[in-house]
Structures are given as C-alpha cells and as structure tokens.
Amino acid sequence: MAESGSVLSTPVQYLKGVGPRRAEAFASVGIQTVEDLLGYTPRAYIERSAHRSLRGIARRLQMPDIFSSDRESVSVLRQEVSILATVEQIRLRQFRNNRVLLEAIIADADQMKGALLFWNAHQYYTRVLVEGAQYIVTGVPALDRYGRITFTHPQLERIEEEEQAMLEHGILPVYPLTEAMRSRGITAALIRRLVRTALDQVKGNIPDLLPPALLERHRLLSKGDALEHLHFPPDHHAIERALERMKFEEIFLFELLLALQRQDQLRGAAPRLPSPSPRWEQLRQSLPFALTSAQEFVIAEIQQDLARSEPMHRLLQGDVGAGKTLVALAAMLTAVDAGYQALLAAPTEVLAEQHYRTICRLCAPLDVRVAKLVGSQSARQRETMATDIATGHAQIVVGTHALFAESSAHPSHTYHRVGLVVIDEQHRFGVLQRAALRDLAMASHPERLAPHLLVMSATPIPRTLTMTLYGDLDVSLLDQMPPGRQPVTTNVLGTDQLPAAYQVIRSQIRAGHQAFIVYPLVEESESMQLKAATTEFESIANEHFPDVRVGLLHGQMSWSTKEEIMQRFAAGDFDILVATTVIEVGIDVPNATVMLINHAERFGLAQLHQLRGRVGRGTAPATCLLITEPFLAHRARMPAQEDEPPAVTRLRTMAETTDGFLIAEVDMRLRGPGDMLGTRQSGMPDFRYLDLVHDTTTIATARAEAFSLINRDPHLRASEHALLRRYVLDRKDSLTHYAIA
Ligand code: ADP
Ligand code: MG
Fold first, then answer.
1. Cα–Cα distance, 33 to 15 (Å, whole number)
2. pTM of whole model > 0.70?
3. pLDDT tens readout for residues 461-471
C-alpha cells in the first residue's frame, strides 16, 4: 500500500518520456501526479470491429443541415468523431485562386473512402502523413459536393506498430489532447504507455475510498479494476462496469458531504416558533381570496418545522406566480408572533422594493414594523434603519445583499434575535452569502441560536435533480396555481408575421389590457445598447402604435427610474412597455396580457419561461408571442426532428407547454445540468462521469448509502471509513461550497 501510494503521488515529470516541458503541458490539464494521470479518462475507444464508421457518418450527413456555413461542404455534422483509417494516397491540388490544398485519401476497414484536407502547414503534414500507415482521425466530418466524407485539419494520431497488435484483439483508448500537449509532443500513444506502466506498478493496490461492504452490496468494481478497465478494456461490457463504478464514487462522495452538512445543520439549537400565529391567522382571514390547497399544505409543513428546536432547512419550490410570497409571509409572521425577527433577502432592489411594499400593505392592519435595507439608501437612512434593526424595533427586515454585505462604508448589520431567514430566488445568491447571513443571524442571539431557513426558488429544477442537489434541504413544492389563471397561449411567429402580432396587441389594448414588448440585449457597449433601445422604442411608439401610450424600460436606467416606470406601468400609465433589459423576476402586473419577445431564439428556456410568467397573472387569458426568423418559426411549428438546432427545440417547447418542470427537463437535456444551474452558484461540482439526467438510479442508490453511512458512523470513526474520513477532512474548509445554505 505504502509503495503504491508513493507511486501514485509521483510527479509525472519524473516518468520516462516526460520531463519538465511536457510536465507543464500535463499540468495544464490538471495532471500533476501519476494518480491524476490514471484519472485522465479516455475520450473514446477505437477498435477494429468499429469498421462502419465512415458509412455511419455518411448516413448521418445525408440529412441536410440548414446551419451549415461551410461553403466547401454540403453539410457538416456539428459533432467531433474519431475513426480508424489508413492513408492511401497523399496529393497536392492547386486551385485557380492560387490556394494549394494538401489532400490525403483515406479508407476505413470497409474500404469506404474519405479525404483529409489541409489548407495550411503543408510541410508539417507531409512529414506526419505516411502512405499506408494507420491513423486515428478525429475531427468534425463534412460531406463535400462530390459526396465524399471530409475532415478539414483533423487531429491525427498514428497507430504505432506495437499498438497494431493491441488493436488486433482489443480496444485502444483515445485520450483528449490539447494543443499545448500536442505541441510538446505528447501523443495518445505516450499517455497509453505511461498509464500502462503506472497500472502495472500499482496494480491491485490502488486505495479505494468506497468501503468493501458497499462494493459488494452493489457489485461494483474496485477502484483498481475500474481504472484498469477504463484504460485498457477487454470488451465493451468492462467499460460500462468501470464507468458505473466511477459514477457511483463521484455521486457517493458528493452525497456524503451533503449528509455531513445536513448533520451539522441539525446540530445547532433554533428558537421554537409555535403556531398558530395570531397575526398570520388575522391576515389569512382578511385576504380577498382563499389560499390554494398547495399553499395551505406547505404553510402547515413549514409551521411544523418552525415549532421545533432543530433549525429548519427548507427549500420552497414553486413556479412563477404560484404564490410563494404569502407562504414566506406566513412563516415570517409566525416568527414575529414568537418574538423573533425575520429577514427576507431578495437578489435585486426592484424585487426587494416590491416585497417591501407588498408586505407593508398586507401587514398594515397587523401592527408589524417592517424595515428595508438596500444598497442605494444613503448612509443616514441606513443608520436610522440600523438602529431600528439592532434594537429589534423592526420585526421584519426586507433587503438585498445589503442585508449581509460587509464594507468599510457599511459594516455588517447587527440584528436582534433572528428567528427566520428567508431567501428569495436563492440561486441568485452565492453559497457563501447565504452562509454569511446565517452567521449574522446566529450572532444576533446571546446564546447563538441558529435561525430557521427558508429558501425559495422559481427556477424549476427537474424533480430528479432536486434530491441530488438539495440533499441537505427538505423540499416543499407549491405545485398548484391560484385559481382563475388561464394558462398563457404561446405562438411562435416569423418576423414576417409581426403585423399579425401587433394586431393581437392592439385588440388586447382595446379590451383595456397591457402588453410587454421585449428585445434581447445584443449590443456590446452600453451606449450601443441605449441607442438600440431608443430606436426600437421610437419605431414602436411612432410607427406601429402611434395612438397608444408606450413606456420604455432599459438596463442603463437607475433602479429607481426602473422602479418608477414599473410603477407607472402597473398603474396603467402605459399600454405597452418596451423593455430591452430582462424584466425583473417577480414583477407583478396582472392587467398585462400580452408578452411579445423579439429574437426569441436568442433566449434560453429558463429566461423565456420567466418572461412569459410576467403575463397571465390576472384572470384574463394571456398570450405570449415568440418572434423569430421565419425559417426557425416554421421548423418550431413542425414535429420535432433529431439533430435540430436547440433554438428550434426551445421555441417548440415553449409553444407546447407552460409546465415549468417540463421546461426545466428539456433545458437540462439541451444544456446539461451544470450550465443550467450555474455550477458554481448551485454548489454542485462538475461531475466527470456522472450524467445527472440519466443516471438517476445510481444517484438514488449512492445517496441512500451515503446518508445511511453517516447515520451509522456520524464521525467516520470506523476503520473501514478511514480513507473517507481523510477525504472529508481534506475538504473541511470547502465544505460550505457544497452547502446549499
Ligand atoms: P411567486 O410564487 O411568483 O412569488 P407571488 O407570491 O408573487 O408569486 O404571487 C403572485 C400573485 O398571486 C400575487 O399577486 C398574489 O397576491 C397572488 N396570489 C397568491 N396566492 C393567491 C391565491 N391563493 N389566490 C389568488 N391569488 C393569489
Ligand atoms: Mg416571488
């Protein structure tokens, strides 16, 4: 073990054939030690039997792609592929415009022909390419006008003679190589040799974080076997089993940290906030509408948590307009009635302002003192507020990052017995910011009580992901809309249909309603943005709607001007609001019934869904008009096709459903979960092996195992958990990075 350990920690620089220059290139892809090298997973595998590659590619290429911009080719696959081919002939072709093309005719095992095209670096390629030699060709294939499959400037990897033998009865790993690696002579063959040597030296002695009993229970490969099979698989089944093991380890370790986090959060004592809360009961009676049963249920769930002395850690998920604010208010009033302060953090001033106003209005008859803390307040305003807050005079504090921002001008606030912290749109806060708020709340009690925490999110997260990501939180779901809301009808229209779209707006305005017209931000510079906004605004106001009142909202306005414009729109001062900036999350104008979005193809699904959520908040039916290029609109109205541009899928999805969760599922498929959630913000690591969309069974199993292990051995003291303990201790400082709150 000790010996294999020292092999694993050997810097790659000292391996035969590496040296300082190559070590640098290795380091640039995160490979410092032999252990890192063993973790460098093949990008693909090549084998003799995969001989239909060129034919397979040809079939896929036959489907024309409207996005092909390459003038030389009829169509292009946007995906990189690797094939095994023999170079048959090398020749130079001179074109009339004096350009010279180096062309290598290749053939695969089927004798299917193709060509490699090189416009530059002819000298280099004439040296590298040898007639009769075999190569792994990696590149984006295209079909040229003669019907040939071509690769322009592909990556080439010559198969050495010794490897020919390996190929005869096996599978050859292909490693990702960056330009830095290539330029220093690092080839996949070199990596293969280094990996082979390392594996032979440590064989069977690679430390395994996963306890033996766990491996046995789930019939998982040991780490050593998994690495062996990942790099040198005897067959495809071996690759699958190796991957399964690596996936399991990845998610298991992540869930283990979540389980520890959760254990830690439950440790502190929280103030008991009992129900019923007289103020909340009074407010509920006075509402002009009945709560939805989802709201009732979730409020009961939350109040149960609040009444206990373990701190609540709850995520409230609910689509835009589901009525989360009232749920939050129920919780806050419960805290106030128990004699504690409640904090509500919103990601923007506009949103904080809106919450502040809503809460003031609803709480007016209740004798509750509400304070506001935002960045734009003057030092004096802040000072007055600070006193009110520190003495506990203010019972509810609504604010932005100013609630916890520490700066020389504004030292962190002192609170007074904080019982509850609510965070709206939680994904827009950094993990550390949430932790900072929690610390301030704890410091507000002489006995350092932990606050109850409610985080809210209108970003629907696919159900499969919720548990994985928020493993340390309980989840409440507001899965029901207030009654009387008609779903928004969505149409995808080409720019050629704009007159019809404007007609829809006109008839809605005639019926007394209002409309949003949104433009995406496209210009780089601020002055350009402003100019574009103004131009659009003028053409809408003067050419298309000269007889109605049009307002303009754009990103360059101060928040107070934005706020004023929104107020005036809400009050009915404008019939149309032209907005160039994304209209703030949470803006509530029930009388608005049309949302027209220009260049809808440029928006992501989450954004489109948020924007659409601005309408249909009243009781009148609403329409969302997605304007795009005519050919995109046309395709979005046709049935889904494989390999269609993601923009088309997005537009069609919007037209077909208003279900935020369904939309989130599609979004995750199109973009991958990391992108969708913003890896850094969500605290989720970039999983190398795990596919959050498809590996749901693995996730569920690993999660259950991790939580049960922490339950049995909360401090990882058992000898078979020694390596896990070390793993966790090494990450102790970064533990909050994994925390959701
Ligand atoms: P979100 O979940 O997006 O934060 P809000 O809390 O802003 O939603 O609620 C959207 C609108 O719905 C508000 O105008 C709110 O007053 C109203 N609302 C909330 N609950 C109900 C209900 N049970 N019945 C009718 N309207 C409701
Ligand atoms: Mg809201």
1. 10
2. no
3. 766 676 666 66
